[in-house]
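Example 428.
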Amino acid sequence: MHISVIGSGYVGTTIAACFAELGHTVTTIDIDEEIVAALSAGHAPIDEPGLEDLLESHAGDSLEATTSYDAVVESDVTFLAIGTPSNDDGSIDLTALEAAAEATGETLADKENRHLVVIKSTVTPTSIETVLEPAVTRGSGGNENIEVGMNPEFLREGSAVSDFMQPDKLVYGTDSEWATERLHAIYEPLLADHDAHIVETDPATASMIKYANNAFLASKISLVNDLGNICKEFGLDAYEVMEAVGLDDRISERFLRSGVGWGGSCFPKDVNAIIAAAREEGYDPALLEASVEINDRQPERMLELLEHHVALEGSHIAVLGLSFKPRTDDIRNSRAIPVIEKLQDRGAEVVAYDPVAVDPMRERFPDAEYANSAAEALDGADGVAVVTDWDEFAVLDREFDAMDEPVVVDGRRIVERRDGIVYEGLTY
Ligand code: UDX
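Predicted structure in complex with uridine-5'-diphosphate-xylopyranose:
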């Protein structure tokens, strides 16, 4: 099949490369010439394991990149993978996606064969019917050969290619059997040696499945953090408790790691967007609001634990880990941001270290100090806040001896050394 993918960000680039790997002919379209040049040369604009290899083997062959929408007409199916950022009130900002939908419609105004436009971006349940479908229709002058569907994406950063190739489920949100069959034909090659659940539904339900999925996972972590905070109050180890709880297969052992909370480009944005969309409908989503509140509270609890042992005013505090999770340099909504802010508010000097995310954080906090290694950050520090579970923080040992009286607050239960240091876990 010939597929066009509009938007070469994180999701667009990954799915384009993976569609090519599945044997389809793919054209990516983006307004950013630098990204288009990189993709044309077989280089990934983002750092994602396995992506560069796929691009290298398909670029210039079954995978092309361009800034022109002309390729849309030649294709059978167009995926829109344009970011849906948050407005100030947390609601979804559809401006860029709506413009892309309209431009796609314009390109398809005279198309005589049926064409499927698939929304890959995360959108609220009413977005397709009230904004995106009308935009396509406006652009195409009402060409009835165009149908709009929804196919949400569940990729995680750091494992996006393997998540694509081995999905738990594929969700086809369409209004016709023809569109469902089109989507299925695209994914069929990966089902040859991998079992995935296929969910066939309508576009609005498909949109809600994505939000419900992310809201569930984020709330699972917040619940574990709430329970974990209670464990800490009782002097109990939340990890021991949750390990036993996870043995109940209705709960599962995954996503039970308590600590400083969730961040990243999806959970915060999506939970806030579905909260705003629910409020708009007149519903008060009490549990999701509590999930956000608990998540916002965890960095403060980290600071309170640190303050039990170190007078923060004028102190030097090492912040270890700046990315929102290990194996990425992405700092979007990283818990390190509120941790650094709160330390600075209390008059502490921050010395931050991360194996890959120092540069983006330096832009965010130019007045903090940045170290080249954990050892350098710890040298002479009065306290340590561990925010990201990079493997290298597990084996810090002699590094702590460079501190007069090592005080470590571990937000991820990653540090293995306990002897000879003051060690506080957030939830144990
Ligand atoms: C997430 C979803 O997993 C993915 O399906 C969706 O498409 C995009 O959002 P991602 O943001 O890449 O993916 O990160 P993920 O690995 O899910 O972690 C999210 C956050 O939760 C991280 O900050 C992580 O540190 C935190 N987390 C995760 C916990 O605090 N505890 C856990 O047990 C698991």
